[in-house]
Design goal:
Elements: H1 39-58, H2 62-79, E1 91-92, E2 98-100, E3 104-114, E4 127-138, E5 154-155, E6 161-162, E7 168-170, E8 184-194, E9 203-215, E10 222-238
Parallel strand pairs: 1-10, 3-10
Antiparallel strand pairs: 2-3, 3-4, 4-8, 5-9, 6-8, 7-8, 9-10
Length: about 240
């Protein structure tokens, strides 16, 4: 055989029929899939769980079922953030119940809606006077003058104006109230309100801020100022005597 020549072999691959197809490379074997429990086995397990739950629920009494559903509701609400919106209700007190603000002890007796009060508060067109009567004791060590911007008692969700000539008067003589330390007097807290804001027979809520003795924000020295806490009282509205 001469060098560089193709051997004349009748059995050579290049002479065999189909020899021009090239070498066949088998496809790689597929990776074995992760094994999973047979579907019938999974379904049987789930069915068994459901059956157990049904048996457990069937064995509970009605009262116990309510407890279960209540727990589910609380857990669901907490998971959705609903528990974050619950706010604590403000403190409250009732008629003829003594309530201490820290500075004063207040016993609310009644509230009236009237067109005028003695010779002090004159009738005004389109307006009435909302008057709250209370026994008040000064538990502090300095006089309380109930100035025109006092916040001893505040009507809640009622449009009002500070009554002129004095927001708080003595029941005894109608004079402007000034309460010395240790003294108790029957006082009337007065606000001017639109004539359609309230009616006799309604109820009105009044807010009584707690007080603390300290420095004022405006630099007027130390005196009784509002604290962050308060108490509410709801009072039926009476008419004139």
């Amino acid at each position: 055989m001469d060098g560089g020549q193709t051997p004349d072999d009748p059995n050579a691959a290049w002479r065999r029929p189909g020899g021009d197809e090239g070498v066949h490379v088998p496809a790689p074997a597929a990776a074995p899939a992760s094994e999973a429990p047979p579907a019938p086995a999974r379904e049987s397990f789930a069915a068994g769980q459901r059956a157990d739950i049904r048996k457990w629920l069937a064995g509970l009494q009605i009262q116990q079922l309510w407890h279960v559903f209540a727990v589910i509701a609380v857990v669901t609400t907490a998971g959705l953030g609903g528990m974050d919106t619950v706010a604590a209700a403000p403190a409250g007190f009732s008629l003829n119940q003594a309530h201490s603000t820290g500075e004063l002890t207040i016993v609310v007796m009644r509230a009236r809606l009237v067109p005028s009060i003695g010779k002090v508060f004159k009738p005004l067109e389109g307006r009435l006077y909302l008057a709250l009567v209370a026994n008040v004791t000064n538990d502090g060590t300095v006089p309380e003058g109930f100035g025109p911007f006092g916040r001893t008692v505040i009507p809640v969700q009622i449009p009002y104006q500070t009554a002129y000539p004095a927001p708080v008067i003595r029941q005894s003589d109608g004079s402007s109230a000034r309460l010395q330390p240790g003294m108790t007097e029957e006082l009337i807290f007065v606000w001017s309100v639109p004539s359609n804001a309230l009616a006799v027979g309604d109820t009105a809520t009044f807010r009584v801020p707690d007080r603390k003795f300290g420095d004022t924000a405006t630099g007027f020295g130390r005196m009784w100022v509002d604290a962050d806490s308060y108490a509410d009282i709801t009072v039926p509205i009476e008419g004139p005597k």
